[in-house]
Design goal:
two-stranded antiparallel sheet, mainly alpha, 2 domains, 2 strands, 1% strand
Length: 507
């Protein structure tokens, strides 16, 4: 008989802190941007959009918990860790600034923007459903260095680097919490009372933060919430059907994110397999697809996805309890309007070390689980992600100066355009680059030629290297900038050279 003791352990508290806080923060960011920047009605955001989006998290985490319980039962092992699941952060910003905000500004109707957001989310889920059936096939043919390398770049440059900036905005809180976490989870140091390492780190940082505030030092940047709870059940609605004509122009922005999360889901399934937990990619991908559709039907506006970080959660000692707890807390908390109470109490610098640890574990796994000769391929996959990170930070700095990237000229403008072209579609670019270099390293030049040809075709429609600030796709016969033809042509030449190398090899 499978008892909870086999799939719920004390380490689940570590995992719960990381996963729940990540999802909660995303929901708070969603609400803050829509209400504060685009002036959506708070009732619409807090009691329709947020609960619907959180429903997808609840359903996905419950399903992933069940997959872990089933694997525990089938394998007879007690160390099975569920795959983490939650709100897709890149899609959050793309939907807010590329769909919801523009519709609201163009029409002045926040409810129409909400309906468009629901419809786009459902369309993303439908696209992912169709793509899910290729997941296991993809895992069989794509080298591990390409699959793991593409998420390792995201792990170290987005998941770890950006939180590191938050640590150094408040180093007294952040560095102390980081050292406590590293001592506990990597150094094997036992925390007081046997406390999980992530909890000890968050408590240490939070304690310093509030003690300093009590003594007259820097405190919270925003006032603590005072509003009461209010029931907000995410009921299904067909209101999105009213906005079908308005949806069409925005599908080109949103649908590439379906492909990105499917690739990410395949990568994360491979990552879990490398850590010892073999899940079926089709099950993982269908779950994220159906959870996304359910979220959209019930008022949600952001898709869900498997999170990067399974090996890190496993290293924390998490099993299946952390996803169960996260799903319940996020789903029920959003339905009660309670999530906004939690995040302001926890300083960002105290929570950021958990994300840094996750980034380190994933990056280490990409190198350790790949053949030694493929190390260069893993490293190569980091470059497109680095461009995306520089874009994010540069856009923030330019905006703070009251300017836009369009104001850049000369060398600065050329550099920005290069970053844009390299950074857009970075997950797929990283996958293709890593796979192509593995093929070259293994002297499979014909495969490299095919991959470069595929990259050329993907460039022609904007799936990678889109020159548009939104990263949108376009028709191959209507490229928006000359650089599209130049990059596609370069890949075509690379394919020809690789094919010639393959022909010479056969002689």
């Amino acid at each position: 008989m499978l008892t909870p003791a086999r799939w719920i352990r004390s380490g689940d508290l570590n995992g719960f802190l990381g996963l729940a806080l990540d999802n909660t923060t995303n929901l708070v960011i969603l609400a803050s941007l829509l209400i504060g920047v685009f002036h959506f009605p708070s009732d619409l955001v807090l009691y329709r959009m947020v609960p619907g989006t959180a429903l997808g998290v609840l359903l996905g985490d419950l399903a992933y918990t069940w997959f872990a319980v089933r694997l525990t039962q089938r394998s007879g092992r007690d160390d099975v860790t569920a795959m983490p699941f939650g709100i897709d952060t890149p899609t959050l910003f793309a939907m807010v600034f590329g769909v919801l905000g523009p519709v609201k500004l163009a029409t002045g109707d926040p409810h129409l923007a909400w309906k468009v957001g629901m419809g786009i989310t459902i369309a993303i889920g439908a696209a992912k459903t169709a793509l899910a059936f290729a997941g296991d096939w993809t895992r069989r043919i794509v080298p591990r260095a390409a699959l793991l390398g593409s998420i390792a770049g995201v792990a170290v440059l987005l998941i770890a680097f950006l939180p590191a900036l938050k640590i150094f905005r408040d180093p007294l809180v952040g560095l102390v919490a980081l050292v406590v976490l590293l001592l506990a989870l990597l150094g094997g140091v036992r925390m007081p009372l046997g406390m999980p390492g992530a909890l000890a780190a968050v408590l240490a940082g939070t304690g310093i933060f509030w003690l300093r505030a009590a003594l007259g030092g820097p405190g919270p940047e925003h006032a603590l919430p005072t509003a009461g709870l209010r029931l907000a059940m995410p009921w299904p609605t067909l209101a999105w059907l009213d906005a079908l004509p308005q949806m069409l122009p925005y599908l080109s922005i949103a649908l590439p994110f379906a492909l990105v999360t499917v690739i990410g889901g395949i990568d994360n399934t491979e990552s879990a397999g490398a850590a010892g937990d073999e899940y079926r990619a089709r099950d993982i991908l269908l779950t994220e697809a159906l959870a996304t559709i359910a979220a959209g039907v019930c008022g949600g506006v952001i898709q869900n996805t498997p999170y990067i970080g399974h090996p890190a959660y496993k290293a924390m000692g998490a099993r299946g309890g952390y996803t169960l707890a996260t799903g319940l807390v996020i789903g029920v908390g959003a339905a009660l309007g309670a999530l906004g109470f939690i995040v302001p109490l926890l300083p960002e610098a105290a929570v950021a070390p958990i994300l840094i640890f996750i980034g380190l574990e994933i990056t280490a796994q990409a190198f350790l689980a790949s053949p030694d000769r493929h190390g260069a391929a893993v490293a190569l996959t980091f470059l497109p992600v680095a461009a995306a990170v520089v874009l994010i930070q540069s856009a923030s700095l330019i905006g703070a100066l009251g300017r836009t990237p369009a104001d850049l000229s000369g060398e600065a403008g050329a550099t920005w355009q290069a970053l844009l072209v390299l950074g857009n579609g970075f997950i797929l670019t990283a996958l293709l680059w890593g796979w192509a270099l593995v093929s070259i390293l293994d002297r499979r030049y014909a495969m490299a030629a095919l991959l470069f040809a595929a990259a050329s075709l993907a460039t022609l429609c904007g799936a990678i290297h889109s020159p548009l600030p939104s990263g949108a796709v376009f028709w191959p016969w209507a490229p928006p900038a000359p650089v599209t033809g130049q990059v596609a042509g370069a890949y075509g030449v690379a394919a020809a050279i690789s094919w010639l190398a393959a022909a010479r090899q056969r002689q």
